[in-house]
Design brief:
The chain is globular. It is of the alpha/beta class and 392 residues long. It is built from 16 helices and 13 strands. Strand 11 and strand 12 (370-373) form a beta hairpin. It is 35% helix and 16% strand. It folds into three domains: 3-102; 130-182, Sun protein, domain 3 (Alpha-Beta Plaits, 2-Layer Sandwich); 185-390, Vaccinia Virus protein VP39 (Rossmann fold, 3-Layer(aba) Sandwich). The strands form two sheets. Strands 5, 6, 7, 8, 9, 10, 11, 12 and 13 form a nine-stranded mixed β-sheet that branches. Strands 2-3-1-4 form a four-stranded antiparallel β-sheet. Helix 1 crosses helix 2. The longest helix is centred in the N-terminal third of the chain and has 20 residues, at 3-22.
Length: 392
């Protein structure tokens, strides 16, 4: 493909990404992959170059562009090839303008945690490295350092390895053997915040595909862990991952709207309940920058209400003296410190609990009743995590 044809391909992909963001369709990486499945003539260099154009345009535009042409016109080198003939995009028309350049959608700026200043915004959209979590039930980190090219220990998580962003590890023997899992360092720290040791009872209330449940099982092999979720497709991915990791995790699929009824037998049973709640995903923009195009004020209101519901759902599951760990991959105040303040206002028998041994004072910054980790400050994805304790 000539350079102009690559620009046209990027325009076509961006049209699909913009529509998917508007209509809750597949993420950008899936769109790119699907596009090239039907275009076998594109070599690896072409695919890499087009993908780079697509993500440059996405990162440049905090607000959702009107179409792929507007997004691509924002890149000067790409815009110069419009109208070049052949397979190039058509020439720029009268009145046609590029999408505006900004990092953060305007309406979200006021929602950010006060800790996230404008000097940190560029880091929210930098390309993320690839982090692995060593399965400490089967291996130790030092022994695996030499197994991956360019690997280094993560700074905060005692279980983590950091690899270059382009690392291909899907068929690596350590991956296939259950010695490592792909997991951002910040996500590993959420499991660490649970302080799981010995034969404790743990409920992972929003387990998804089970990444944090697996981390907890590795850290506390004697623990009794129940992974719950309402999404059958995501939860079904846990069993093969657990088998590969040598972990024993019970799975409970919940019916939406009947969660409390289906969890009633676990009342007052859990030493630890983890609520890794659905959220805005603002902490993962460096991995999914088009996520900025999916958010809306109404959508944020709905997810904040869901988080409060899940926290309230967790309360009766925790035994007296037990812990509730709340986490979101968000850097927005209402989803983090604000959510915890509201929870404590509703539940007088609960209080903010200190983080466990191993969760250092330099892990994130104090944000209300929890800690906030950000790409600019901690070199992790953006996460808020709080540990709460039920009175005895």
């Amino acid at each position: 493909m000539i350079p102009a044809a690559r620009v046209q391909a990027a325009v076509e992909i961006l049209d699909i990404v913009i529509a998917a963001a508007r209509d809750d369709g597949p993420p950008a990486d899936v769109v790119v992959s699907n596009y090239f499945k039907t275009r076998r003539y594109a070599g690896s260099g072409d695919r890499r170059a087009v993908r780079e154009l697509v993500y440059r345009a996405i990162r440049r535009s905090g607000e959702r562009p009107v179409d792929g042409r507007a997004a691509m016109l924002g890149l000067d080198d790409a815009a110069a090839l419009f109208g070049a003939g052949g397979h190039a995009p058509a020439a720029v028309g009268d009145g046609e303008v590029a999408a505006g350049e900004r990092l953060i959608p305007g309406w979200i700026e006021g929602e950010l945690s006060p800790l996230v200043g404008a000097d940190e915004w560029p880091a929210l959209l930098e390309r993320a490295p690839l982090d692995l979590r060593v399965n400490v039930a089967k291996a130790d980190r030092d022994s695996l350092l030499a197994a991956f090219d360019g690997a280094e220990p993560t700074r905060l998580s005692p279980w983590g390895l950091r690899l270059p962003a382009d690392s291909q590890i899907e068929q690596h023997e350590a991956m296939l053997g259950g010695l490592v899992e792909v997991q951002d360092e910040g996500s590993q720290l959420i499991a660490l915040a649970c302080g799981a040791t010995g034969a404790v009872n743990i409920i992972d209330l929003c387990a998804g595909a089970g990444g944090k449940a697996l981390a907890l099982a590795a850290a506390a092999p004697e623990a009794d862990i129940i992974a719950c979720d309402t999404n059958r497709g995501r939860l079904s991915k846990l069993a093969p991952r657990a088998a590969r990791a040598g972990a024993t995790i019970d799975v409970r699929l919940l019916d939406g709207g009947r969660e409390a009824e289906m969890l009633d037998d676990l009342r007052d049973q859990a030493d630890i309940v983890l609520v890794d709640a659905p959220c805005s995903g603002t902490g993962t923009w460096r991995r999914n920058p088009e996520g900025r195009w999916r958010l809306s004020p109404d959508g944020l209101d709905k997810v904040v209400a869901l988080q409060a519901h899940l926290l309230d759902l967790a309360v009766p599951l925790v035994r007296p003296g037990g812990s509730l760990v709340y986490a979101v991959c968000s850097i927005l105040g209402r989803e983090g410190a604000g959510q915890i303040a509201d929870f404590l206002g509703r539940h007088s028998s609960w209080a903010v609990h200190t983080m466990p041994d191993g969760f250092g004072e330099d892990f994130g910054r104090v944000d209300g009743g929890g800690r906030l980790l950000t790409p600019g400050s901690d070199r992790t994805d953006g996460f808020f995590v709080a540990r709460l304790k039920r009175s005895c």
